Amino acid sequence: MTIYYSLTFMLLAAEMATFCVLVFPLPHKVRKRIFGFLSESAAVAKVAYALRISFIFVAILFVDALQRMFRVTAESELAKQNGVAHSGNVQTENSFAARKFYSQRNTYLTGFTLFLSLVLTRTFSILLELIHTQDEYAKLKGTGASGGDSTKEVSELKAKIADLEKKDRDFETLKKQSAQQAAEFDRLATKYNEATGANSSKRD
């Protein structure tokens, strides 16, 4: 794996760890302090700016990996049509299989990194909004204010909380889909390893 794809993998691992921290059930006070620090710290803002620039390069890598995957797939299909893949040349078969596997791996790697960056950004904004809404609701509940306007505001806040909880469930669905895609990637890798092992045994 080249250096830029290794860095992309490290970025993906960091995103996964950050996502687990964000969705981990924490007490309201602890979560409020963490999100307050992340949203107000100047150092965190500089890191976020650097990450935005890095995601531009990841997007370029994703487009390049996608083009390579399509090109390698087309070459593999053309080779099958011409009978190269069935000519008995094990080295040629392994070469096509390896190129196809690496191109798919790079596409999945960069694609997951970009997808998770969008999920993290949206999850952070939703949770931050939820914290502010819970604080406002606690203030209104603590003051014991009465009247039609206060009742209306409380109803609106409850509706906001219900909407945010619905969005949180949607992100749980996205997380499950990401896990399924990762399982599919592992299946492709296992299939490739089995195919390579079978070809190696034929040569022996």
UniProtKB/TrEMBL annotation:
UniProtKB keywords: Coiled coil, Endoplasmic reticulum, ER-Golgi transport, Membrane, Protein transport, Receptor, Transmembrane, Transmembrane helix, Transport
Cellular component GO terms, alphabetical: endoplasmic reticulum membrane
InterPro entries associated with the record: BAP29/BAP31, BAP29/BAP31_N, Bap31/Bap29_C
Record-annotated BAP29/BAP31 transmembrane domain positions: 1-139
Subcellular location: Endoplasmic reticulum membrane
Keyword field contains Nucleotidyltransferase: no
Transmembrane segments: 6-26, 47-66, 108-131
Membrane protein topology class: Multi-pass membrane protein
Residues of the Bap31/Bap29 cytoplasmic coiled-coil domain: 152-201
Major location (coarse): endoplasmic reticulum
Cited function: May play a role in anterograde transport of membrane proteins from the endoplasmic reticulum to the Golgi.
Name of protein: Endoplasmic reticulum transmembrane protein
Organism from which the protein derives: Roridomyces roridus
Taxonomic placement: Eukaryota, Fungi, Dikarya, Basidiomycota, Agaricomycotina
